[in-house]
Fold this sequence. Notes:
Blueprint: E1 11-17, H1 23-37, E2 41-48, H2 53-66, E3 83-85, H3 96-102, E4 124-125, H4 126-135, E5 142-147, H5 151-157, H6 162-169, E6 170-175, H7 178-186, E7 193-196, H8 198-203, H9 222-230, H10 237-246, E8 253-255, E9 262-267, H11 272-283
Parallel strand pairs: 1-2, 1-5, 2-3, 3-4, 5-6, 6-7, 7-9
Antiparallel strand pairs: 8-9
Helix pairs in contact: 1-2, 1-9, 1-10, 1-11, 2-3, 3-9, 4-5
Amino acid sequence: MQFRGQGKPSLGVIFDSDMGSRVETALALAVLYGLDGKNECRVVSISSTRTSLLSAAYCEVVGRFYAGAVSAAFGAFARTLPVGLAADGKIPGDTPLLTGPLNRTNPDGTKTYQHGIETLIDTAAAHGLIRNAFTAQHDQNATVVLAGPPTNLLQVLTLPGAKELITVKVKELVCAHPQAAKELEAAGWPTPIASVSPSVGSSVLFPIATLGKEFAEFPAHPVADALKAYGKDAPTGELAAVLYAVRSGDKAFALSEPVGKIRQLMLVPAEKDRLLASYVELATAKPVVRQPRFRRPVVEEPKKPETAPAKP
């Protein structure tokens, strides 16, 4: 169906990670939903390479939180995305970053954060989910953020026609970890790749003091609970990957000359304080009441039937 008078929607972001391995991954997802709430992007796919139902459940809990589920501000469960999960068993196990938030209970003993992932069939096959997300985007209006190992994306590349689809739909792949960028380049990833320099994450730390300040405004926040379980200031390399993917022109970032398909994402030191303020603002953003995202179809007026010319 064609649509009239509508431009492209905001950038679609595919977020793939090994959620539960590092607290910065949870913070990065919070930043992504903060950007989504500002209409700067759309979160269109969430997946995990960790073979853990709690990893998928935590991703869903964060999505439900930013849809307003915990505060009951509005009924928005339908807005949460299916979560893709790897099934190769290479990153098994649960961690305190997952069990801490997900085991939190209310005074009456009920779980603070609800989710619908109890068995593997409650998740989606990650590589198929990502491929389908590409298909649904306008040409050159998607970006992939990889905040973990490339397992799922390597599997996507093996699907028939995947590289051609990625070339058409995806502007850039942003890898939070350099080794993943190298592996995907070697496997034939077809778009430009930005790889976050390790110094970017270590130069700007997300403060645990936000638990007593910005996060304190929320009676329950799954990302704050993960930060509490971590117990100290957190690196921000994965947050940089998300912010650059959406705000590629941000003055806090500079890019090296490409080596093959890969350019290194570096930090402009003079922008450190402003960059940290952006991270905190976005990660601690309140859930935003969203209007349904749909485009009104054009109603074509029926053509009048042609009449034969009158006979002389």
